[in-house]
Design goal:
Structural class: mainly alpha
Mean pLDDT: 84
Shape: globular
Distance between the termini: 26 Å
Low-confidence stretches: none
Strand content: under 5%
Amino acid sequence: MSNDLKILLLVLNCTMLGLGTVGGPLVMRLYFLKGGRGVWISSFLETAGWPVMILPLAISYLYRRRKEGSGTKLFFIKSPMVLASVVIGLLTGVDDFLYAYAVDRLPISTLSLLISTHLAFTAAFAFLLVKHKFTYFSINSIFCLTFGAVVLALHTSSDRPANESKGQYLLGFFMTLAASALYGFVLPAIELTYKKAKQTITYSLVMEMQMVMSFSATVFCIIGMLFHKDFKAIPREASEFELGQSTYYVIIVWSAIFWQFFFMGVVGVIFSASSLLSGIIIAAMLPVTESLAVVFYHEKFQVEKAVALALSLWGSLYYIYGEYQESNKKKKNQASETEIA
């Protein structure tokens, strides 16, 4: 793959990840604010858009077939990667449920600040799984993000919705941290799967993996919906939705689209760069999501949120700067080795 194509893919995936990171939670919160109550329904929508990937995969296959003839493989993915993708997909399904429950209970501005802690979890699991070393910058970033979450935890009553008990709010708070920790594990796990694969990693293979992961997560959520009898509840929810029945289905469709952007962007950025860059982009979109939540949903923005936001931004920027420094060091070392050789 040429450098120009790699850069184009990275920009495309960063754009999709940014759109999904901002649009996904905002549309999901709108569903809950206007009368939606299905946590499993929202979980399902996070990965239900997986059939969208069939189109680019089909185009890729037809393009290869023109060049290689009738012996062209339909799929690149092999059994070990299928198994790894299914396991990661099931973990993603659990994460979907934790996240959807949190969106139902917490204002998006608070939720976004808590989700930013996933960068700290990503750094920890990247160290354990793919041997990404801790640096002064990453440790400082983890401290800032953790302290920001503590600041919010000490002021849980300030933005609790009027119709919600303190117990429900706190459960949403800890569900968010659990979702953040689990996804902090998933990102390096995907990168580890790439490293351990005994085959060439191409963008088509990455999309195939994402399709398997999303399908597995969707099946997990469908089982939850069946036990909770959510399929029967959808028509009733649509008829009682505050913005109207047609708007209900529009919101559901856009929710699935935005979340598919998110997941396709994540695996694409990991393929083009690293799991850490995907974590950085998600954290960097924090102020955008927070600002839009305050503007559109009139959420409160108290002093403690401003402090937590400042700490999150500082931690994220410090992390980005640290990664930039490490990248420059590696390039210099590689250049020195080349000169010596």
